[in-house]
Design a protein that fits this description.
The protein is of the alpha/beta class. It contains nine helices and nine strands. The protein has a six-stranded parallel beta sheet. It has a three-stranded antiparallel beta sheet with strand order 2-6-5. Strand 8, helix 9 and strand 9 form a beta-alpha-beta unit. The protein is globular. The protein starts with 6 loop residues before the first strand and ends in a 13-residue tail after the last strand.
Length: 238
């Protein structure tokens, strides 16, 4: 049974804990280390971007499309995990926001279970989370075939309402369905997760908010914090 006093602190990743998105830097790292020749396939990724812009591909589909051409149709999970671990060390060292680190430390000291919930791929989010000292991750999962990771998504892209649903499933699985949830993010697409936190009696924080989230925060009276200068990121909008 879960104590009624259980509390969970949930953080978005990209541009909340870091000053930029993580997908493009991961792809650059992968290409430089593992498959430089795949830069020749960038036009295929650009074609997918056009299809996404026209509404022919969903966010989840463009994610799978980019993975297919830039990472590969099947990659050994052990190989991907090793690359992700090396990537995360440099990425977090260069891009983690100091106030975000402090917030996580404060939550941990308060006895809250800390979770990173991200639409990014879990195969590298887990490595980034480990560098923040966070063990629990809710993120977009890829289909495994044997010991290989494929571009197909295992379930929904963990974005918008799907992130809230994934977080609720995780809470239930961990025996934390009655927990108070505190939620921090930079993006308006996380409105369902903000609402979940408030429904549980928890708190919300709009960290480094996007223009739309800043407007929503002003409308609803949600607190805002600026944790650092946020950089744009190619191929990423949220």
């Amino acid at each position: 049974m879960t104590s009624i006093h259980s509390e969970v602190a949930v953080y978005d990743l990209d541009r909340t804990l870091t000053d930029t998105g993580s997908w493009t830097p991961f792809i650059r790292f992968w290409l430089a280390r593992e498959a430089p020749w795949r830069v020749l396939l960038l036009p295929m990724v650009a074609l997918g971007g056009v299809a996404y812009g026209l509404g022919w591909l969903s966010r989840g589909q463009i994610k799978s499309w980019s993975h297919r051409w830039l990472i590969g149709p099947r990659v050994a999970e052990d190989r991907l995990r090793a690359v992700a671990a090396d990537f995360a060390l440099g990425f977090v060292a260069d891009h983690a926001l100091a106030p975000a680190r402090a917030a996580i430390a404060t939550d941990a000291m308060a006895g809250r279970r800390v979770v990173i919930a991200s639409a990014s791929h879990a195969y590298y989010v887990r490595a980034i989370a480990a560098c923040f000292g966070v063990a629990d991750v809710v993120a977009t999962e890829a289909v495994r075939v044997g010991s290989d990771v494929t571009p197909a998504l295992d379930g929904a892209n963990c974005y918008g309402p799907a992130k809230r649903a994934a977080l609720e499933r995780w809470l239930a699985h961990e025996g934390l369905a009655g927990a108070v949830v505190h939620f921090t993010s930079d993006h308006h697409s996380d409105a369902p997760c903000f609402e979940l936190a408030l429904e549980t009696g928890g708190s919300v924080l709009c960290a480094n908010p996007s223009a739309k989230l800043a407007a929503l925060a002003a409308q609803r009276g949600w607190p805002v914090a600026l944790w650092g200068r946020i950089r744009g990121s190619l191929l990423e909008r949220a």
